[in-house]
UniProtKB/TrEMBL annotation:
<dbReference type="InterPro" id="IPR009569">
    <property type="entry name" value="AA_synth_put"/>
</dbReference>
<protein>
    <submittedName>
        <fullName>Protein enroled in Amino acid synthesis</fullName>
    </submittedName>
</protein>
<dbReference type="Pfam" id="PF06684">
    <property type="entry name" value="AA_synth"/>
</dbReference>
<feature type="region of interest" description="Disordered">
    <location>
        <begin position="174"/>
        <end position="193"/>
    </location>
</feature>
<dbReference type="InterPro" id="IPR035936">
    <property type="entry name" value="BB2672"/>
</dbReference>
């Protein structure tokens, strides 16, 4: 076990009024909570890395709480996703350690969500950008909520760091009209439909 070292954090909220068509009654909010942390495995191969997920859990929970609050409260959140960006001295598997702490944190804060939390991860240098996939919190097949948010910071990740992120949205894409399962028709049995 090691002490989690956070260099910086950011909280970003986009307020989307339209995508070229008529403005909805309520703008869509799309937000990201980002943390830049030291990668304790940078520069070497370490066979035993799972313990670091326990170190990440409190950070994930704090990020999820702050992000939900920034979007007007957990009850307003309809979409979510997570991602990690590993600096060049790390490996992709280090980014995979964010899956459980990030995903379970959002599920705890949003209580009762059924759908798997989609994710992305990659290796990148300072200023790299990452697209975070988003799906509906209760049914992955709700096409109107298939979305993404590009995230990144100009000075992260350094080679011995990781950038971890959570993304939440308050509704479907603005002007969604691609068909598929409607959010009002979710059965909520399996996280898919």
């Amino acid at each position: 076990m090691t002490e989690l070292k956070i260099r910086k954090r950011a909280l970003v909220v986009e307020e989307i009024f339209h995508e070229g068509g008529p403005a909805p009654d309520t703008p869509l909010l799309r937000g990201a909570a980002i943390a830049v942390i030291t990668n304790p495995f940078a520069g070497r191969y370490e066979p035993d890395i799972q313990w670091f997920m326990d170190d990440l859990r409190p950070l994930g929970l704090d990020m999820a709480k702050k992000l939900a609050e920034a979007l007007g409260g957990a009850e307003r959140v309809e979409g979510y996703g997570k991602a990690s960006l590993v600096g060049s001295a790390g490996e992709l598997e280090h980014g995979a350690l964010w899956h459980a702490p990030g995903g379970y944190a959002m599920r705890e804060v949003l209580s009762g969500t059924k759908a798997i939390v989609p994710s992305s991860k990659k290796i990148g240098g300072m200023g790299a950008r990452l697209d975070v996939p988003v799906t509906h919190v209760n049914a992955s097949y709700v096409r109107s909520h298939f979305d993404s948010m590009e995230i990144g910071l100009n000075d992260a990740p350094r080679s011995d760091e990781m950038l971890v992120a959570l993304v939440m949205t308050t509704g479907p894409r603005i002007h969604s009209r691609s068909g598929g399962l409607d959010a009002s028709a979710i059965k909520g049995e399996d996280g898919l439909r």
